[in-house]
Amino acid sequence: MTFETTLNNYFPGSISLEDYIHQTHEKLTPLGFTNENTFACVSVCRDEITKPLLDQTDLVWGEVFNFSSLAGSLTLGKTGFAAASSHAPIIDGLERYIFIAMPHIAISEKGEIGIVYREGRSGASHACGALEAIIDEIGNGKLHLQLDMDDIEQSILKTKIFEKLQYGEKPNLVRITKIAHEIIVEDLERLIQVSEKEPYDYAVLTGIMIHGPEESNYVYPQSFYAVTMENREEKKSLVL
Length: 240
Known about the structure:
This protein is of the alpha/beta class. Helices cover 36% and strands 20% of the residues.
């Protein structure tokens, strides 16, 4: 098994991170989104290996508002979202935002799921560690769902994921990562709807960030749509 085989088996249609950011930018520009008038908000896992997504977004769209939490989940709530959605430049009375949100997973050169090698560490490391910890709890039959005030983000993440599982299900890392993506989309769309703001143009970009060999990064694209003054009552789906 190789990295490419595993990538194509579980995440068909994935593209390099750089291509993803540039292609989505090209699709959004004709709809009025530019780096001069648009404010980017990004949610990825707190893991340092997700920083390339923040850096690429910053390079193309300008300085970003960081939504990030464990596994890319959106724990900032209405207050954090309200802060982020009050920072875009107001041009001709209109604000524009893009929201990028995704969990992450690693695939080694040998096609091993969840395995990544970090500089300075001799052994294998893991991504996403927060999701693997949940898998371990389920496998051990010791899933703790009460709110742990010393582990708030993980507590919230576990509860939301558990609600998506079938009774007795023991998900693997690919399955639980896709569940995490589903939760992120639901939370993001709810926060957009409950934000008490005047209408603004926005685009939603979601998927799964994939770490490959030699610090390469890919994106498995999922939701990609825009809501603008011209199509305020419907989402304009976009295709890469």
